Amino acid sequence: MCIGIGGYTLRGGKVLMEDYTDFHAEIASRHRIHDYGLDEACPWEFVPPVGGVLTDWDSWELRIEPLAVPSWWDDSHAESARREALAKIARLWQARRKTYIDSLNMSCTGITGLGLLQSVGGDLDLNETGITSLGSLQSVGGDLDLKGTGITSLRSLQSVGGDLLLARTHITSLGSLQGVGGDLDLQGTSITSLGSLQSVGGDLDLKGTGITSLRSLQSVGGDLDLAGTGIRNPINCIVAGQPYGL
To answer: By the 8 A CB rule, do 143 and 160 touch?
Structure first.
């Protein structure tokens, strides 16, 4: 299953969810789902439709794996699950700030646009989606996973608090990006400039890129790998607490 918003519905109609996670295994553990019996709880996910936009919440759809649909499931269970999922989104979506304050796992969904989204408080997983633009997104508090997407530019994105994952992308521009709190792996990408990037809290891997200058980069908290790059100029950059090269 993909994720989106995840939950369980019991035979009697009770909906089980958690604000801090949408992973079924974690919800099952928290609520001791297996104590109810395999036929007493139905797992579901609430996700954007194929070709959908993330912040068009009312267009999201309830999905259940065909083999997981129990005999007692009916329209009332589906409507209850949808209602509770929308209520969770309402708690976590700050419309005026265009901010989702928790994590969003859209991996492998049919999503193609982020809509009004400008900020995510936790992780944002867009792995293997049809996303080709980050729209107005400016910040992600946790990890940002763009692996396997059609993203070529980070556009207005300024900061990622965790890791920025760009493997299997055709990224050519970091846009307005200034800081990454975790690792940034650009190995084998078509990036030729770090743009306005100032800091990377973890490792920075530039192996095999067309980067010839570190430009505005001031610090790397972990390792800096420049193998196979064209960087020849002196580097005024602190790496792992020391001036690079010392």
So the answer is: yes
Contact 99, 79 (CB under 8 A): no
- 48 vs 59: CA distance, rounded Å: 7
Supply the Cα-derived Rg of the chain in whole angstroms: 21
226: tokens are 């420049």
Closest by CA to 42, choosing from 5, 72, 76, is: 72
All structural domains of the chain with their residue ranges: 5-94
**Phi then psi dihedrals of residue 88, to 5 deg:** -65, -45
Q: Which helix (H) or strand (E) holds 140?
A: strand 139-140
Angstrom distance (rounded) from CA 236 to CA 219:
9
Give the tens place of pLDDT for each residue, 184-240.
999 889 999 999 999 999 999 999 899 988 889 999 999 999 988 878 654 678 888
Distance CA 224, CA 236 (A): 13
At residue 94, the pLDDT reads 97
